[in-house]
Structures are given as C-alpha cells and as structure tokens.
C-alpha cells in the first residue's frame, strides 16, 4: 500500500523533528550532567590550590597551567607553519596534482586518531630525541595534530578574499608579497583566527596525545623540558584510578566551560567577519 | 631602480606614446589577440569598442602586464612605451606605477578612503604624512570626489555609493601620478548621472594623461573618444578618429557594429 503524500509528509516531519530534538537533547544532557556534577565542587580554592593526596583533595592549579602552557606551545608552533603553508598552497602554486596531494595528506592527517599522534610523539620526541615527558614534546605533538585544521581553515579564509582585490593591488604597483601582506592576510584574518581557535579547542581537550608525551607531573613547570599534567589527563587519572570522582567532575566542568567559551569566541569572530563584509 | 629613473625621465607626457607591434596573445590554445598593430597618442582618449569576447580587455591588460598573472598567457610581438619594450627589461611592478587601471566594477579595498588612495604611493616608498595628505587631496580633486568626501576621509571606502567608489578608484590610480590610465568598462555598473560625472572627469584628465577606455557602449565611445578602435574576435578591424569611425568607417563590419546590426 502506498502512503498518501499528505500522510508521509506528516510522518517525515515528525521523524525529522525527533532527530533534531534528540540531538539537541543529548548535547544539553551531557553539558548539564557534567556541569551539575562538577559545579558544586568549583570554588576559588579548587582553581587556585595545588592538589593534595594525588588529587583526592586540594585544587587543580598546576593542571590549568599545564593545559594553558601546552596549548600555547602548540599554537605558537602550528600557526606560522599552518598559515604559511596555506598561503603557499593558495597564492604561490597553481591548483593541480600537487595541491590535491598535499590537501589529501592534510585531510588524512586530520582524520588520524589522536592516540597515534601520541604514540608517534612518544617515540620521536620523548624517546628518540630525548626530550622526555615535557611541555616541548607535548606541544610539538599537539602542533602536528592541529596543523591540518589550521591549514584548511586558513586556506578557506584566504580563498574568500576576492580575486579582484589582488588585481587592484597589483595594478597599483604592489608585488605579490606586498599584496598578500597588505590585502590578502588582513582580510583573511578573522577566518584564520577562527581556525586557530578551533586548534586551541582541540588542544585544550586532548588527552591521548598528551598523556604519552607531556607526562602527568603535578608540579609547576619551570622550563619547556618539564613534564606537566593537563586537566583532561588529570581527571582521566582521578577517575580511572578511583582517586576522586567528585574532583574529576569538577575538573571536567572547568574544561567544558573553557571550551564553550572558546567556541563562543570563534562564533562571535565569524559572525563579525561575515557581517563586516556584506 | 635604473628602470624607474629611465621611465621617470620620460615623465613629460607630451612625448609619451605607445606603439603596439604585431601583438599576438594566447591563453592556452586560444588565440585571443591576432596581430594587433596600433599607435596610441598622448593627451587623447582612445576608445576601444567591440562585442564581448573580442579581446578588448585582454588588449588593455597587456598594457600594464596584468595578463602576466595568468600562467597560461603567452604572447608574441612587442609593446613599445616611449620606444622601450615593456615586456623586456622592465619590472612589471614599476610599469604598473606608470600605467593606472580602472576596473569594470568599482573595487575599493576594504579600508578607509584615505588608505585606499595612499595604498600605491606608500608602496612606492612615500612615507611623509604631509606629502601623502597632499596626494590624497590632489587625486580626489582630480577625480571630482574631494567635495563629497573631504570631511570623512577615514570612513570605510565601502560606504560610498557605486559612482563615488568608481571615482575613488580613479583617484587611487591618479595618486601614483601615472602617464597612462586604462579604463575597463568603467561605467558598466553605474547609473547615467554617475556615468556623466566619470566622463566629465575623463575629459579633464586627458589634458595630463593618455586614456584608453574599453567600453561596450558605442555611444560612450562617441561621446568621449578622440580616437576609436574597433575589435572583433581578436582582430583590430580598424582604428581612426572617432568622427570618421562613426560617420564613414572603412570596414563593413565596423559599420554593422556601430549601427547596431550585431553586438
């Protein structure tokens, strides 16, 4: 029997509506669940004190600093490399086999599970290059991991700059580099920044790649060669080893709030960018 | 730098002259311009007319070597500017400072009115604030835009109307004190009043510059052109004083195009 179009229309509307509703519900459920478990733990002491008894008591200050420093190192390394590669791919070489291969490589790199980056970083930086579990090993590993994201978003941002701007710039006696510096990059900047923020978002929450390479020391680092523990590694250890589920949720809540804030910032920048260009 | 000096010596535009000799241009396998020979006189306006795809814009873009940006472009022949081949021993960046270009659509760069105009001069190495202010005022006056924008030079150029934007683009090209101004259908996106203003500006500008305008509008060619060149499918069919082209063309095809039988 064939359903009449009116009925199938109604049914599909309901089915699609449920799919949307469920998606939103799951998202909200996760966030509300984590925050409701975690927020009661949060207070100034939790954020500003050192952990005591392996994290069973005390705060999470070193893990916040560890997360921050590691992400900073990753971004400082990945941004110039990624943006540079994106400029080269879009402005200096013609669309063809080579760009396709490079782009395919970058996309595949983006799809590799982070634990593989972790293992790679462990073997290369920690063991072979004798950097040990350190901010530098972890930062480099994270940089490699987020590089494809930064390249892709920067490339897209650069491509949105109208070709006519480049022609105008050339017609006014600019060289290629002057055109890139004065016209292309400034106009692509909001998109590039969004890519960097996405990279930060990935680095901040990364666990597998970091636990292999940056270690899990709870001391405050004093150099790039010191080991640090990030927030995500911290609550992984807290919950896995049954040290304190309560503090694990508290740490997770801090992380969730931080990532939400990052994404909102990225969204805001994107919004401002699109509005300005209309 | 040697090249700049040589070109600068010839800056007395009374003697400037362009000779195009046996110019052929290819994009990939496509033969876009076929054996063009043309002399262009200073202080006159040359109007280049012809139907779409006749190679007018390509011809224009040869004169400031903007076609170089397309790696598929190949050419033979020569373009002499004051007797010097612009494709030999001349840095295209320097050439483009001497040859300004106005595009079909007004394309202000997304920065302030002031910044748009000083874009070229700054790249050319002018940093003195006073000098830059002078350049901005003179260029805007020459483009008949000064009175409309003098109180808001720091506003985004995008906020201007279409006609104002196009005059801003003219001012921006003038800021480099070029010898030649190329215009690629500069009024195609403008209303009649804005068009009239641009044409008025052109009549004033030809006193100091050589102007070459590509236009789809034969009436515009008749209004502003001292000379007119008719292109068809990559060939230069004929070029002559505008009056002659429009009253007694030598070639049947020119007559057909001008009288609106095709195009």
From TrEMBL, chain A:
Give a yes or no for keyword Transmembrane helix in this entry. yes
What is the annotated localization of this protein?
Cell membrane
A matching Pfam family: BPD_transp_1
Q: Write down the membrane topology.
A: Multi-pass membrane protein
Q: Which residues cross the membrane?
A: 12-39, 59-89, 109-127, 133-151, 248-270
What keywords appear on the UniProt entry? Cell membrane, Membrane, Transmembrane, Transmembrane helix, Transport
The biological processes this protein is annotated with in GO are: phosphate ion transmembrane transport
Q: What is its main location?
A: membrane
- Describe the location of the ABC transmembrane type-1 domain by residue ranges: 64-266
Give the GO molecular function terms.
phosphate transmembrane transporter activity
- Single GO cellular component term: plasma membrane
User: PANTHER family annotated for this entry?
Assistant: PHOSPHATE TRANSPORT SYSTEM PERMEASE PROTEIN PSTA-RELATED
Q: What family classification does the UniProt entry report for this protein?
A: Belongs to the binding-protein-dependent transport system permease family. CysTW subfamily.
List the protein's name.
Phosphate transport system permease protein PstA
The organism named in the record is Candidatus Desantisbacteria bacterium CG1_02_38_46
């Amino acid at each position: 029997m064939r359903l009449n179009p009116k009925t199938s229309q109604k049914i599909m509307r309901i089915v699609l509506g449920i799919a949307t509703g469920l998606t939103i519900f799951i998202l909200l459920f996760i966030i509300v669940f984590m925050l409701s478990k975690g927020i009661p733990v949060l207070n100034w002491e939790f954020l500003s004190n050192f952990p005591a008894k392996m994290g069973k008591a005390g705060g999470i200050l070193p893990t916040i600093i560890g997360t921050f420093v590691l992400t900073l190192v990753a971004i400082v390394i990945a941004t110039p490399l990624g943006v540079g590669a994106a400029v080269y791919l879009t402005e200096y070489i013609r669309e063809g086999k080579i760009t396709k291969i490079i782009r395919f490589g970058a996309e595949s790199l983006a799809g590799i599970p982070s634990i593989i980056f972790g293992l790679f970083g462990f073997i290369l930086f920690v063991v072979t290059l004798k950097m040990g579990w350190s901010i530098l090993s972890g930062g480099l590993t994270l940089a490699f991991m987020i590089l494809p994201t930064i390249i892709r978003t920067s490339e897209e941002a650069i491509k949105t700059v109208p070709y006519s701007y480049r022609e105008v710039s050339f017609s006014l006696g600019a060289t290629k580099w002057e055109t890139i510096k004065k016209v292309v990059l400034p106009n692509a900047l909001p998109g590039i920044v969004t890519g960097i923020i996405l990279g930060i978002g990935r680095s901040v929450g990364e666990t597998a790649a970091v636990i292999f390479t940056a270690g899990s020391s709870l001391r405050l680092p004093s150099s790039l060669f010191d080991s640090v523990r990030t927030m995500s590694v911290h609550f992984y250890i807290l919950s896995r080893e049954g040290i304190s589920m309560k503090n694990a949720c508290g740490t997770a809540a801090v992380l969730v709030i931080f990532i939400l804030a990052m994404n909102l910032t990225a969204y805001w920048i994107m919004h401002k960018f699109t509005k300005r260009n209309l | 730098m040697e090249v700049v000096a040589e070109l600068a010596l010839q800056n007395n535009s009374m003697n400037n002259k362009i000779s195009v000799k046996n110019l052929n241009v290819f994009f990939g396998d496509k033969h876009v311009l076929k054996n063009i020979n043309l002399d262009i006189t200073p202080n006159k306006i040359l109007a280049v007319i012809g139907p779409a795809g006749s190679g007018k814009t390509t011809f224009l873009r040869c004169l400031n070597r903007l076609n170089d940006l397309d790696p598929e472009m190949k050419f033979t022949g020569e373009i002499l500017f004051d007797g010097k081949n612009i494709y030999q021993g001349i840095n295209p960046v320097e050439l483009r400072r001497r040859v300004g270009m106005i595009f079909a659509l007004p394309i202000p760069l997304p920065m302030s009115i002031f910044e748009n105009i000083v874009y070229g001069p700054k790249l050319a190495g002018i940093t003195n604030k006073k000098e830059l202010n002078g350049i901005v005022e003179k260029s805007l006056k020459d483009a008949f835009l000064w009175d409309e924008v003098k109180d808001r030079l720091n506003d985004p150029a995008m906020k201007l109307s279409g006609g104002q934007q196009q005059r801003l683009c003219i001012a921006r090209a003038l800021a480099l004190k070029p010898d030649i101004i190329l215009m690629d259908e500069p009024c195609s996106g403008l209303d009649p009043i804005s068009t009239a203003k641009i044409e008025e500006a052109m009549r004033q500008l030809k006193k100091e510059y050589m102007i070459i305008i590509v236009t789809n509008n034969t009436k515009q060619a008749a209004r502003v052109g001292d000379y007119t060149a008719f292109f068809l499918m990559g060939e230069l069919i004929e070029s002559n004083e505008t009056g002659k082209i429009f009253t007694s063309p030598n070639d049947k095809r020119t007559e057909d195009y001008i009288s609106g039988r095709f195009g």
